[in-house]
């Protein structure tokens, strides 16, 4: 299998109208998928750099770079780009920054494909050196407002940031929020932005995905607009140390989340595609869809009014979150005790095959449904390529469908031990 | 441009053919003025889940997870399953609403979840502000309601609400997928055949649309509502008004895009006061809601409001060229296509036009009309629906900051809404 993939990547012979996966000479990885259900094309440029690549003392820099890249590039200043978007009906565009990647994307009418490729090629090759401190100052204000809106105003979002900051020590790439601290954002300079662009934003560190009603000229356009960008070696991957906790850490929330108490727990968990990652997804789904409440009520009315679980799968190390909201007048410590009781039952095998089977089937079906949207399909292909998986979604489904109740129990036993976690406890407002 | 091709296979079955490994099915129920939206949506969620989650479990065997979508003029129960299981899913979905086997324990379990959902909503300043605007201007849009009411519902309340659903107009089924037509029509007829329905049969199209649309009159702003959140770094600003059910929704949508673009330019780009500005229109026959939502730096609350109202004023009589409108219309055509990629989105789109009493070809007709929208339609929508003096204002944030900055603007006396009471 690996040999076949390597052979494909080494042979950039693309037949117009055919699906393809290849690299340009400068290292840009390209994935093309034809889908003619609508006269639209999804274009997604994934740069393999995210908040784990933020330099020390510059948390949030990758995200700031995403915003600066939105302000224009050498040949496509912001005004020109916006005019083109208007004329081409290419309004459906955005960008997002994660721990490991920054993605820029458009979904546009098929006839806009070449212009969108030109815009993205300029963004990949010609943002560095284009902006000064005034641009950065404007970007900083917007990002600080985004931080307030997404990370400060919402008390539940604050619980998560507190948990990540406590679970991963200062200096660890997962410490705190992707959007960065207000202090680091204030300290960032345009030289930091240019240095980040120079090191990380280039064809050798990027994947371009196109899905949709691709014109026959698409491979030639890609070569024309991206092929001339200079080759640079892919930067060395940032070290992301694994953390383990010798004992549980409980911390008080910075503020209540409302009249009822709430608790957010975070455990370090198996990395993306490692043994246990798929079992974690299945467990989260099964517990959310009735599994938790059925196990909790065995000893009386449940303390938790709402239960939510998520495996955030990441390379190197993932994080498993549990969030519970209680009842008015309840105590957060009682919520923690109830979660522990339920998880110890799961670890002992209490989640039986029917509940696990339904969770597997729901995950698989939802995965198939997600591919109805061209941009979601492009995002999935980019993520699969980054993880070295076979393209098309089959591997995730195979992994979920193979999960057994015994594996779910083993995951709970090995990963979700009380001593291995951080718990953020929010009292209800009095 | 491509719109979903809707076929009517019998009086209560709407079908869109889409190839693929899954099928989406929706059961569309109409509401009347007698329905209490929060209790009605709570009841539907209970029915969708079934006794001790039996319906949810049964659909889970086909990869489905049922969802209740509140449509103001009705509600949609929707599920997407593996394509081979459409028959079973259709049967489960329709049987769920008729089932009467719920217990007090089921009510209690969902009540706890509803109260937690209300807490999440009210913890988010923008969601809290939008809810207040909905309660004041368009209560039929509010499916969650308030904690005090949710705490009082019993199994008897739920049974009465279920009876209301069963006695409302005959429901419709919307299926998006590859199920064979004849077999689908038979399955739908069988599933809905003995539906209790109203005492006297009602037609599918509501008879009193225009009349209901005129029920809601624009109300001049009398005060500014303030939900205090001491120490908040940003102020959530919600500005909006009621929109009658017979308004030209398409022109309003384009006008909203014009206003949204202008506000983003001023509040985000020029002033740097905010990260985002959203302008939305939620239609409803008994009164929909036009809402502008943004969260601004607390220190810029007064200046942002002043800039916003100045933009609203200058939008009156804004001259739009034919070229600009053509581009805007085309952008919305593309947006429609993007929004109809997912099967579940098509089900919801069809359900919305059904409860609004619109014809079956409305999706295609709308797409065509977007290509040729007229400037006077949009300009009329701008002057009719964005007049500053009719806009109600809700602010969620630090009360001292708001008082100091907003009182001098002369938008009206501040009325504090105390959540703690």
TrEMBL record, chain A:
In terms of SUPFAM superfamilies, this protein maps to:
LuxS/MPP-like metallohydrolase
Which UniProt keywords are listed?
Answer: Hydrolase, Metalloprotease, Protease, Zinc
Official protein name in the record = Insulinase (Peptidase family M16)
Provide the species name: Nannocystis exedens
Identify its protein family: Belongs to the peptidase M16 family.
Q: Which GO terms describe its biological process?
A: proteolysis
InterPro entries referenced in this protein's UniProt entry, alphabetically: Metalloenz_LuxS/M16 (IPR011249), Pept_M16_N (IPR011765), Peptidase_M16 (IPR050626), Peptidase_M16_C (IPR007863)
Q: Enumerate the PANTHER family for this protein.
A: NARDILYSIN, PROTEIN YHJJ
Q: Which residues form the Peptidase M16 C-terminal domain?
A: 189-360
Which molecular-function annotations from GO does this UniProt entry contain? metal ion binding; metallopeptidase activity
Residue span(s) of domain Peptidase M16 N-terminal:
30-118
Pfam families on file? Peptidase_M16 (PF00675), Peptidase_M16_C (PF05193)
From TrEMBL, chain B:
Q: Which Pfam families match?
A: Peptidase_M16_C
Q: Which residues form the Peptidase M16 C-terminal domain?
A: 153-315
Entry's Gene Ontology molecular function annotations: metal ion binding
> Source species, please?
Nannocystis exedens
Gene3D superfamilies the record matches: Metalloenzyme, LuxS/M16 peptidase-like
Supply the name of the protein: Predicted Zn-dependent peptidase
Q: Which InterPro entries match?
A: Metalloenz_LuxS/M16, Peptidase_M16_C
């Amino acid at each position: 299998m690996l040999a076949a993939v390597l052979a494909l990547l080494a042979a950039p012979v693309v037949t117009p109208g055919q699906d393809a996966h290849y690299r340009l000479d400068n290292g840009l990885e390209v994935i093309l998928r034809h889908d003619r259900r609508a006269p639209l094309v999804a274009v997604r440029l994934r740069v393999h750099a995210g908040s784990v690549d933020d330099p020390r003392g510059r948390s949030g820099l990758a995200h700031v770079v995403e915003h600066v890249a939105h302000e224009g590039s050498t040949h496509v200043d912001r005004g020109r780009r916006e005019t083109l978007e208007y004329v081409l009906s290419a309004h459906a565009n955005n960008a997002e920054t994660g721990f490991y990647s920054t993605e820029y994307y458009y979904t546009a009418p098929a006839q806009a494909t070449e212009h969108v490729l030109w815009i993205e090629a300029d963004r990949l090759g010609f943002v560095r050196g284009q902006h000064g401190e005034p641009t950065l100052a404007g970007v900083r204000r917007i990002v600080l407002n985004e931080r307030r809106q997404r990370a400060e105003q919402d008390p539940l979002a604050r619980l998560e940031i507190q948990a990540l900051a406590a679970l991963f020590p200062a200096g660890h790439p997962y410490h705190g929020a992707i959007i960065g601290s207000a202090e680091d954002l204030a300290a960032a300079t345009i030289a930091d932005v240019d240095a980040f662009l120079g090191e990380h934003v280039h064809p050798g560190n990027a994947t371009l995905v196109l899905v949709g009603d691709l014109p026959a000229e698409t491979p030639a356009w890609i070569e024309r607009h991206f092929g001339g960008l200079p080759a640079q070696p892919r930067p060395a991957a940032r070290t992301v140390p694994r953390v383990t906790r010798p004992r549980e850490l409980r911390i008080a929330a910075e503020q209540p989340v409302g009249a009822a108490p709430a608790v957010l727990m975070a455990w370090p968990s198996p990395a993306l595609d490692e043994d246990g990652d798929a079992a974690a997804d299945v467990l989260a789904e099964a517990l959310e869809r009735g599994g938790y409440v059925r196990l909790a009520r065995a000893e009386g009315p449940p303390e938790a009014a709402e239960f939510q679980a998520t495996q955030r799968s990441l390379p190197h190390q993932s994080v498993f979150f549990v969030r519970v909201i209680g009842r008015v007048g309840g105590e957060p410590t009682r919520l923690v005790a109830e979660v522990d009781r339920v998880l110890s039952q799961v670890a002992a095998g209490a989640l039986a095959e029917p509940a696990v089977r339904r969770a597997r089937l729901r995950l698989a079906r939802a995965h198939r449904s997600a591919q109805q949207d061209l941009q979601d399909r492009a995002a999935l292909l980019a993520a699969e390529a980054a993880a070295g998986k076979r393209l098309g979604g089959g591997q995730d489904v195979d992994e979920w469908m193979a999960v057994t109740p015994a594996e779910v129990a083993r995951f709970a036993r090995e990963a979700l031990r009380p001593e291995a976690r951080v718990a953020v406890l929010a009292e209800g407002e009095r | 441009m491509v719109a979903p091709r809707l076929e009517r296979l019998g009086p209560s079955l709407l079908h869109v053919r889409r190839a693929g490994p899954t099928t989406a099915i929706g059961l569309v129920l109409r509401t009347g003025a007698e329905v209490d939206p929060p209790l009605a949506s709570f009841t539907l969620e209970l029915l969708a889940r079934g006794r001790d989650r039996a319906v949810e479990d049964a659909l889970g065997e086909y990869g489905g997870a049922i969802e209740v979508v509140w449509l103001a003029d009705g509600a949609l129960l929707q599920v997407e399953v593996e394509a081979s299981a459409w028959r079973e899913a259709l049967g489960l979905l329709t049987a769920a609403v008729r089932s009467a086997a719920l217990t007090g324990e089921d009510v209690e379990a969902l009540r706890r979840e509803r109260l937690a959902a209300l807490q999440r909503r009210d913890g988010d300043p923008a969601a809290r502000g939008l809810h207040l605007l909905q309660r004041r201007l368009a209560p039929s849009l509010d499916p969650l309601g308030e904690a005090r009411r949710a705490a009082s519902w019993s199994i008897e309340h739920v049974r009465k609400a279920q009876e209301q659903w069963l006695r409302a107009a005959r429901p419709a089924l919307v299926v998006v997928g590859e199920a064979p037509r004849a077999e689908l029509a038979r399955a739908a007829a069988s599933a809905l055949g003995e539906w209790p329905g109203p005492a006297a049969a009602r037609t599918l199209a509501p008879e009193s649309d225009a009349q209901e649309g005129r029920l809601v009159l624009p109300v001049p702003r009398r005060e500014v509502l303030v939900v205090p959140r001491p120490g908040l770094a940003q102020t959530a600003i919600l500005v909006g008004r009621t929109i009658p059910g017979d308004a030209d929704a398409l022109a309003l949508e384009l006008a909203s895009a014009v206003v949204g673009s202008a506000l983003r330019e001023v509040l985000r780009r020029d002033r740097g006061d905010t990260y985002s500005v959203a302008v939305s229109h939620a239609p409803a026959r008994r009164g929909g809601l036009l809402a502008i939502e943004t969260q601004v730096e607390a220190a810029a609350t007064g200046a942002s409001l002043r800039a916003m109202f100045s933009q609203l004023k200058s939008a009156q009589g804004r001259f739009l060229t034919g070229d600009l409108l053509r581009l805007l219309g085309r952008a919305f055509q593309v947006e429609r296509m993007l929004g109809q990629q997912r099967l579940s989105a098509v089900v919801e789109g069809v359900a919305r036009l059904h409860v609004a009493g619109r014809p079956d070809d409305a999706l295609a007709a709308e797409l065509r009309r977007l290509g040729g929208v007229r400037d006077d339609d949009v300009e009329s929508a701008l002057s009719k629906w964005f007049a500053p003096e009719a806009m109600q204002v809700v602010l969620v944030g630090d009360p001292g900051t708001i008082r100091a900055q907003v009182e001098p603007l002369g938008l009206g006396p501040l009325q504090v809404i105390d959540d703690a009471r």
